[in-house]
Amino acid sequence: MTRPVLLPAVSILVLALPLFARGGHPPGDARGEKMIDSLVRAMTIEEKVGQLVLCTPLRDDSLAGPSVSAEQARLIARGRIGGILNIRGARATHEAQKIAVEESRLKIPLLFGLDVIHGYRTTFPIPLAEASSWDTAMVEQDARVAAAEAAASGVNWTFAPMVDIARDPRWGRIAEGSGEDPLLGSLMAAARVRGFQGRDPASDGSIAACVKHFAAYGGAEGGRDYNTVDISERTLREVYLLPYKAAVDAGALTVMTSFNEIAGVPSTGNQALLTGILRTEWGFRGFVVSDWTAVTEMIAHGVARDTPGVAALAFNAGTDQDMESGAYGLFLSRLVREGKVTAARLDEGVRRVLRVKYALGLFDNPYRHSSEEREHSTLLSPDHVARARDAGRKSIVLLKNSGGVLPLSKKIGSIAVIGPLADDRGDPLGPWDALGRPQDVVTLLEGIRSALPPSAHVLYAQGCTIEGNGTGGIAAALEAAKNADAVVLAVGESSAMSGEAASRSSLDIPGIQDALIEAVAGTGKPVVLVLMNGRPLSIAWAEAHIPAILETWFLGVQTGNAVADVLFGDCNPSGKLPVTFPRTVGQVPFYYNHKNTGRPAVDTARFTSRYRDLPSSPLFPFGFGLSYAAFDYSDLTVTPGTIDSAGTVTVAIRVKNTGARAGEEIVQLYVRQDVGSVTRPVRELKGFRKIMLAPGESRQVEFPLPGRDLLMYDAAMRRVVEPGRFTVYVGTNSRDVTEGHFTVRRK
Ligand code: BGC
After folding, report:
1. Ligand 1 lining (C-beta closer than 6 Å)
2. More exposed terminus of the chain, fewer Cβ within 10 Å: N or C?
3. Which atom of ligand 1 is nearest to the CA of 86?
4. Cα-trace Rg, the chain
5. 621-642 per-position pLDDT tens digit
């Protein structure tokens, strides 16, 4: 194709942009659309395809992070690359951006994408942990910090939030999401998008969000990563799709396809999903990127024979940009020339990518305030580290505290800190730690040491490794335990055991850690078990025998300080589980919002839906978490008793702190539609409030419950509120509740 005559006009337009660039760049605004039209008119087919190519840098010889190879530099200069992932650091991104905006014909800036999942350099708790805080303001704030650090480093796009609902803890990626509930997941998804993108994605310290993995990646059969998903359209729409929708509604600029198929259709080639639902139903205006090589993986899925075949399938379905498979770069131009992809579809894909670049302000300011000085002053700043500590405290869930073992007194004479994770510096960062560095981590041992006065005797023994079988360290651990007034025992998983490609067939604490726990418990000393892990673990023995248990997940750089704050009572724990804890792996998938069946489980009745060798209940239910305070629930009212579907019920309850310490409680509201045209879940979370109560204080908590919160898909898949009786449940978790009723009258 020859050089288009419009080029001078485009250049003038691009140059003129900063003059009228103030006041945000909403995707789709007239100014941007005009500029994009001019650019698209000026582009050759190859340059258009270039915008749809996302690749990873091939050279990794720079201290500032991987930078582009000579070959990639040539491709950028020729307009054949639209974005680079895994590049980072102001120096490397400037180098690449300079080629794009100074050497390429149309001077279109590059996107720089990275998995900034729970922090950039300041590593925050993993998303599953932060979901345990049920604190959307905190989650938004932490995403904001991550965005500010990434932006300082030249990254302008994060592959987050990961919002996949996960009902099976065998799946390693459960760590990256917000657990099993669609409402909690949706609120967390939207909070993260707001945090990453700010009010205006072009503003200082904002980066583009990418909602992933669209869709239902968490539904992988057997919890095995990349596996088949086969769920009903009802479950897809009522459970799995909700958090993606919430993220799109919050303004997420990009969406990533998932590796899996749903009912025979791989997501990357799923037109009904990527175009029907995402564009037509939800009005999404950004672009869709494939997951890593997901385009060519459709050959293995068996829906096309070769690379041109999958490229056409993916692109025509609505996957606008190809991450790393090379299929678009190699074949899209040819497919357009052969008429297998229309020129209009190509232009549409390009427009969507340019729209996101425009929304990020890249045409005005391709370097977006990143610089090495900025990196220096922003990354791991004291304010960010303080926020990580606060987030860590709020993400901890107290699972057991019998006999008031916790909080421990700081006047304690001696304490034994034992376990493979007690002084571990790398694993507390968790999976997907971006630029997180072990040297930034405060270990549990260090946190305990700095919380206690110098007079306290802190003994340490590793006991065993996380996955190994060596028992040689147990004797020293027992010795330390015997010489101490109390034991803090830190066990769990390595960070590599969760995240991508880290599914497990067992939920047991790995290696010989169970033997260590039993041996330490046998000393008769008061033991506090501190769990570090990326998924619910089966800890039935510990639950029965250890007096105090803290679920701390992976808390990031401030692990030791955050856990010590809770251990010694400087912080009263308030986290609640965003996932069900099964008793054993045999119970999974296990989630609180299940159906009732025709034979609901009764443990003493044989012909009911249960396992003959296990109680039917979970070890800890969804929403569970204790406090050093105690909360009493009373006086539930549901008014009015009858509404029509446009009305609103007010559910109110009195909550009193009957304990001796001030504490926060997350009051939870669940609803069940008693009878429907189709079966309904036994309960569904419809709201929650986090309240702080002083000792003896009580407060009335009110939840407005509008009729639209009762929407469901009826037998004909229409979205309606069905008349009939509803049961409301209010309480401290999904199991321990007080119930009331109301009715939706027939119109
Ligand atoms: C993961 C994505 C991630 C991408 C880029 C893939 O393997 O599934 O979640 O964003 O790699 O790192």
Report:
1. 85, 115, 159, 212, 291-292, 500
2. C
3. 12
4. 27
5. 999 999 999 999 999 999 999 9
